[in-house]
Amino acid sequence: SFRAVHTRQKRLPAINTVRMLPKLRARRPIRAALCFSIGGFALSASLVCWVASRTPRLTVPAVRGYSTPSFRAVHTNSRAMLTKASTNKLAGSIAISQLPDAETVEHEAYETVKIDDIAEYGARATLFKHKKTGTEVLSVEKDDENKVFGIVFRTPPKDSTGIPHILEHSVLCGSRKYPVKEPFTELMKSSLNTFLNAFTYPDRTCYPVASQNLKDFYNLVNVYLDAVFFPRAVSDPQVLAQEGWHYELDKEDDPLTRKGVVFNEMKGVYSQPDNLMGKVELESLFPDNTYGVDSGGDPKVIPSLTFEQFKAFHEDHYHPSNARVYFYGDDPVKERLDLLDSYLNEFDRRNVDTKIEWQKLKENPRYVESKFASAGDEGKYMSSVNWVVHDKPLDSSEKLAISVLSHLLMGNSAAVLKKALTDSGLGEQVLGGAFDDTLQQTVFSAGLKGLSTKEDAKKVENLIVDTLTKLAKEGFPDEAIAASMNTIEFRLREFNTGGFPKGLMFMLGALEGWIYDRDPIEGLRFEEDLKSLKEKLAAKEPVFQNIIKKMLLDNSHRVTVTMEPDKELEKIELDQESNELKGIKEKFSVEDIKSIVEETKALKAAQAAEDPPEARATMPRLSLEDLDKKQRDIPIEVAEVAEGTKIVSHPMSTSGIMYMDIALNLDSLSIDDLTLLPLFERMLTESGTEKRDSVALSQYIGTHTGGLGVSHMIDQKVNGMKIADPDSVIGHLVLRAKCVPEKIDTMLDIAKEVLTSAKLDNKQRVLEILKETKAGMEAGIVGSGHRFAAGRLSARYTVADYIGEQMGGISYLATVKQLLKQAEDDWPTLQKRLENIRSALLSTKGDGRMLINLTADKELLEASEKQFKEFIATMHANEVGHDVVTKHDWAEEAKLVGSGNEGFPVPTQVNYVGFGGQLYQPGDEVSGSAQVISKFLSTGFLWDNVRVIGGAYGGFCGFDPVSGLFRYLSYRDPNLVGTIDNYKAAADYLANLELSQDDLEKAIIGTIGDVDSPQSADQKGFTAFTRWLIGREHDDLQKRRDQILSTTVEDFRAFGRKLQALNEKGDSVVVGSAPAFESANKDLEKKFELLEIL
After folding, report:
1. Active-site residue, from 141, 243, 564, 1001
2. Comparing C-alpha atoms, which of 40, 13, 35, 39 is closest to residue 24?
3. C-alpha span between 441 and 657 (Å, rounded)
4. Is 429 helix (H, G, I), strand (E, B) or coil?
5. Which of 198, 298, 422, 548 is in the most buried spot, having the most CB atoms within 10 Å?
6. What is the C-alpha separation between 374 and 571, in angstroms, rounded?
7. Residues 729, 806: Cα–Cα separation, whole Å
8. How far apart are CA 623 and CA 1001, in angstroms?
C-alpha cells in the first residue's frame, strides 16, 4: 500500500455514482488502491509518492452497468490464510502461469547483464545495459496482454521548491516530436491506455504507461520518451508558470496573486492535518539528507523557484545515464530495444551523481511540536512516534520479515499495537502503519489523532514503547504469527492487483532496490526468503523480537511529533500571504506591474489557444478500425437452490482461488436503520463472536482464508436504455471472502459465525469505531471535498443516492456524532437496534433474501456445489432471523434534500466546487454518446479552463446514464465563482462545437479504452453480479457500445443544449474556505446557504 499523497484511484464511500482518481503523495499513510505485497519487500508499508501529475476524474461506475467498477474495499482488513499444517500446501493450491517460452534476445546496442526466470510469477527477466549511455533496461517477458513501460529517473531534491514534482507535470506539456500543449491529455482523450500517469517520490520520478493494444502501447512509449528527454518546458518559461507558479495580475489595480497547478495542489495537500504531520515527521527524521526536504513542494517555498533552476534540474537529472527503463508483457523484446535505442542513441554516457546519502542514526530521541489549522473541537491533538530503523542496506529476507512484523503490529484492528492504541481511549483514530520500506531507509510510524490534551502525547509515546518492550520480551502468540505469515503468503501468491496492471506492480517492486543500484530482479522474488523465514520460526528463532529490539527499542533515532490544533492559524496564514503579496507589489515599479499584467495576458492567451492542426497531426493515434466492436462478455450462470436463494457463478480462471460473495437483502431495514449499517458491518468482523474474541477471530480468519470483510451496495435499478425511476432502488449487505479449495468449508463456517453470532454488545468497540469514523470523515471532507459535494448534489434526485449520502456523505458525519452520544448515554437502545438489524437480515428464506456469488475455475465450482448448498441450508435454519419479513418502502421514507446552493466551510486554502442536476428525466432514452461527450469535456474544455487557466488541480464532469444526473466537480481549486462560470460556459462551448472527424474519432477511441479497462477475475465476477442485480443486460451494453462508436458531432451539440437548460436550474454544492464563500456571496445572485459540519 502506498503512503501516497495522491492515488490514481480512490473510491467514493457509499456515493455509488462516482469513481475518482486523485493522486498520491505524502508521508501520512493515506491507504491507496495499489495495496498488496510483492517479492521480498512489502508494498504493504507505504509509498511516499506524488502521483502528482494529473487530475482526478469522474466516471460512471460499472454497478450502474457501463464502465469499470471501483473495487469495493471489502478486504480492507484483508487477512490471509492456512493453518501451519497446510502452509506448505499453499504454493500448490494457488496456480502460477507458466514461464514464457522465449529465445534469448541479443541486440547490438545493448550488453546483456543478466537473464533470470522469476518462477513465482511465471516471468522471464533480462537486464540489459545500453552501451552508448549506460542506461539499465529491465525487460520482463510475460504472457500478459496488458503491456507496461516505465522510465524512472533518480531525482533527489536539495530544497522544498518542488522541482521534481513540477518538472514531472511539465515534461508532459509538449516535446520535440509532439509540439502540442498537452500530449498527456491528448493521450487521455484518444488512447486505449490501461494506465497513464506519472509520480514523484522523494528520490525518484516515474513515468509509466500501459495498454493491451500493441500499436497503442508503442504510441504511448514514444510520447513518454520524447517528453522526458526533449520537453518544451525547458525552453518555454510559460510551462513553469502554468504548472509551477506565477504572479497573476489581470489589471494593474488588482491585488497581486500567485497561481500555478502544483502551487495550488500543495496548498490543498497541506490543508490536511495528516499531511502536515507527515511533512514534520520526514523533516525531523531526516535532517541531514534529501528526505528532509519536500519533493512535492512547500507552498511557502515554491515561489522561490526560478526558471534557471528548473531548467538546470532537468539537464542534470533527465539524462539516460540517470535512467532506469522497464518493459513488461507479451510484446517482442527486439522491438522494445529498437524503439528505446532510437532515443538513447542521441546521447552519450555521462557521470550523473544522484546518489542518495544515508541519514546517520542519532543518539538521542527528539520531540517536535507543530500546529495545524482547525475548525473543529478544541483540544484535538495528534501525536506519533517515529524511527529511522537502519543506516545500512537491508537484504530481501530482512524486508520480508519486517513486512510480516508490520502486519503483526498494525495489520488489522486486532493487531497488537493497533489494538493497544485503540483500546487506550486516548484518541479517536490510529495513525501510521508500522514499517515503511519504500525509500532507501525504512521508517516506523505509529500514533493517534483526536487526543484531548497535549499531555496525552507523552502517554501515546509511553504506550507504544511499553507495548513494543513487552513484545520484545514475550514475543507474539503462535496463532498471530501463523495468521500474519499466511496473510503475506496469500497476497504474494495471489498477486491480485485489481484493475492496476500487474506489470506496473512489477516495476515498482523492482525499483525498491534498483533505484539504489541493487539487483532489480532479486526484489521480485520471495520463495527462498519465505522458506527461510518459515524455517527460522519453526526453530523458535525470535525473529520478530530481535527486529523490535535492534531496530526500535535499542535505536535512539526516534522522533515524537505532536500536532496542536489552532483555530486562528488559517486566518493568520491567509493574512500573511496577503500582506506578503501586498508588500511585493508595493516594491514593484510601474514597469514591473505592467510587465506582470502583460505576462498574465500572454499566459492566458497561450493556455486558451488551440493547438494548430499540424501540431495535432504529430500525435500518434489509433483508428476506429483498431477497436473491438463487440462488448466483452463475462460468464454468468444462475441456479435456484432452495427457498428463493440463488447461486450466481462465473466460471473463469482464478489460479485455484474461490472468490465468494454472500448478499443479504436490505429492504427489511428502514433508512434510519441503514445509517447504522457501516457500524454494523465493522462489528461483524471486529468485535468477536460467541466462540472467539476479536483477536482470536482475526487470527482465525487470517489462518484459514485469503481475506474476509463486509460492505454494502445501494443501487438504482436500470430501465433498459432509458433513465430509470428515481424511486427504484435495491440494497444488499455483502460478505466477501476468498480461500484455497481445501478451506472452503472453513470459510463458510466463518461466514456463518460472523453473520449469526458476532458480539454486538461490545460497547467499547462501538465507541472506538465511531470515534475513528468521525476522525476519518472530518479529514476526508477537508482533503477530498469533491466526493462529498458530489454525493450531496446527487442526493437531491434519487433514492439510491439519497441513501448513499445518508450512509457515507456529509449527512453521515452528523449521524456518527449522534450515534456517539447515543452509545455513551443510551447504550441499551443502540445495542438493540444493532441486534434488530441482524435479525432482519438473517431472515434468509424467500425470493432474493440471500444470494451467493461465486467466481472460480469451472472444475472448482462444480466440485464445491454441494458445500454451498449445505451452507445455504444451514443459513435458512438459523435461529437469529425474524420469522416474518417487513419490507420497507425507501421511496416513502426518503426526504430528498431540497434545491439551492449549499456551502460547507472547512479549514482549507482551496475549494471543491460542484454544480449539476437532472439532465434527463425518467423515461428519457439516452445514447451512449453521452459517455463520449462527458470524457471529451473533462479532458478538453474543463481541463483547459478549470485546471490549466484556473489553476485547480483538477476539473472534470460525469454523467450517470441510469439516473440522468450530470455533475461538474473541481479538486483543490483556488477559485469558486470563476469555476462555476466555467461550468456554465461549457454548455455554450458544446452547443456551438465544431469538431473535426479526426477529433471525434479520438474521443470515441478514448471512451472505448475506459469501457474496456482490464479487471481481475474477482472484479469481473462481482461486476457481472451487480449488473445482474440491477437488471443490466449484455444486449444493453452492446447497444451502448454501438452508440459510442457511432457518436456524431450533432450528439455533442444536442448534449450542449441540454446543459444550457441545466445552467438555469442546476445548483452548486461547495466544500471550501470561509473567505471564498464570503467573496462568492457578494458576487452571486443565488447565494450559498452556509452549513457548519466540523
Report:
1. 243
2. 35
3. 36
4. strand
5. 198
6. 11
7. 15
8. 7
**What global pTM score does this model have?**
0.90
pLDDT tens profile 799-858: 999 999 999 999 999 999 999 999 999 999 999 999 999 999 999 999 899 999 999 999
State how far the Cα of 56 lies from the Cα of 59, in Å rounded to an integer.
Answer: 10
Q: Which residues contact 151 (CB under 8 A, 6 or more apart)?
A: 206, 207, 224, 225, 228, 323, 324, 325, 326
Residue 777 DSSP one-character state: H
Cell reading at 902: 449549499
Q: Which three cell numbers stand for residue 1000?
A: 471525434
- Number of neighbouring beta carbons within 10 Å of residue 294: 28
| Contact status, residue 175 vs residue 325, Cβ threshold 8 Å | no
- Written as one letter, the residue type at 517 is D
The answer to whether the CB of 163 falls within 8 A of the CB of 211 is no
512 catalytically annotated? no
> Which residues, at least 6 apart from 301, have a Cβ–Cβ distance to it below 8 Å?
159, 160, 161, 162, 294
Residue (of 34, 36, 273) closest to 776 by Cα position: 273
Q: Does residue 27 contact residue 279 with C-beta atoms inside 8 Å?
A: yes
Phi, psi (deg, nearest 5) at residue 258? -115, 140
Q: Output the CA–CA distances (angstroms, integers) from residue 593 to 147, 429, 602, in the order listed.
A: 51, 49, 14
Q: Is 496 helix (H, G, I), strand (E, B) or coil?
A: coil
Residues 468, 372, 553: CA angle, nearest 5 degrees: 15
Beta strand pairing call for 136-141 and 323-329: parallel
Closest CA to 963 of 873, 869, 896: 896
Tell me the one-letter amino acid at 198: A
The full 3-state SS of 204-227, as one line of letters, equals: EEEEEEEECCHHHHHHHHHHHHHH
The verdict on whether 308 is a catalytic residue reads no
Distance CA 527, CA 376 (A): 49
- Which residues are 260's β-sheet partners? none
Under 8 Å between Cβ of 239 and 307: no
H/E/C letters for each residue in 468-493? HHHHHHHCCCHHHHHHHHHHHHHHHH
Contact 1071, 785 (CB under 8 A): yes
Mind listing the pLDDT tens digit for each residue in 605-646?
A: 999 999 999 999 999 999 999 999 999 999 999 999 999 999
Contact yes or no for 831/38 (Cβ under 8 A) = no
Single out the catalytic residue among 120, 141, 168, 512: 168
What is the widest separation between alpha-carbon atoms in the chain?
85
Distance, in Å, from the CA atom of 82 to the CA atom of 89, rounded to the nearest integer, reads 9
What secondary structure does DSSP assign to 150-217, as a single string? EEEEE---SSSS-HHHHHHHHTTS-BSS--SS-HHHHHHHH--EEEE--EE-SSEEEEEEEESSHHHH
Q: Are 436 and 202 in contact (CB under 8 A)?
A: no
Q: Which residue has the higher pLDDT, 465 or 91?
A: 465
What is the SS3 assignment for 111-122?
EEEEEEEEHHHC
Instruction: Quote the percentage of the chain above a pLDDT of 90.
Output: 87
Is pLDDT at 562 greater than 90 in this prediction? yes
